[in-house]
Amino acid sequence: MDPIEKANSLIEALPYLQAFRGKTFLIKMGGSAMEDPELVAKVMRDIVFLEVAGINPIVVHGGGKAISAAMEAAGLEAKFVGGFRVTTDEAIDIVARVLSEEINPGLVRMIRDFGGKAVGIPGNDVFLGEKIKGTDTDGSKVDIGRVGEVVGCHMEYMDAAHKAGIVPIISPLAAELATGKPLNINADLAAAALAKELRVAKLVYLSDVPGLLSDPKDPSTLIKSVTRKEADALIADGTISGGMIPKIRSAVDALNAGVRKVHFVDGRLPHALLLEIFTDGGVGTEVVR
Predict the structure, then answer these.
(1) Which of 11, 25, 26, 187 sits CB 3.0–4.6 Å from 62 for a disulfide?
(2) What is the tens place of the pLDDT at every residue in 192-206?
(3) What backbone phi and psi angles, to 5 degrees, belong to 188?
(4) How many CB atoms neighbour CB 31 within 10 A?
(5) pTM of the full predicted structure?
(6) Closest CA to 123 of 85, 86, 157, 90
């Protein structure tokens, strides 16, 4: 790219920088995009860019593969029911350690290495939860252990980080309402719950899929933008299926609660976050009201 092209890229970003200054973006990081340290570092640098540009980013991260590896090392089998990890009393200790003591501090260090400000916050200091049951392939409800859903949020740490201009990095755990003990929370649903609480300007899901595809096997069939009504129709006709259904439903739920826009972006693409937010064409799928 020559200097003129670089300048044109900055000019293209200008109206977006003006529109989003002072706004809050919630970024959920997950999928295999979190397994490549170079890609993760690029995302963290992009988040520092948002911070410097006057935007207030918040990160909720997953860690499924790292948790499965740690469980295997401890002699525990990773089991899933209806997309939820079965989390025994023994497994929740591993889940909490990997999320809040390994992945979370690593992300904080990356932000700081790029000159940004960040603080790691265990999710059970933010989210309040209640246990849920899983649904097996027969449609029956089954016990899946210490797995929960978010029923409320503590905002003290979030507010303090916001006032100090620090990026909160939050793990997907919750404190059980009845006991205070940790619960394992699906990171997509945790991110959506916090986005609803804050009514953020943007909720961005960074994962290992390009976005919504008309043909799941063909990345060139990317759907650039859908409304809530269109998203429901795509679920009904089977275009959206499998693991994308709860993601889209959580996106629609967030929009209904006041979130302005939801994006699904392929985190394996370098600088996908900036390309989606600050260019006219974007690179993923936006879900709008």
Answers:
(1) 187
(2) 999 999 999 999 999
(3) -60, -45
(4) 19
(5) 0.92
(6) 157
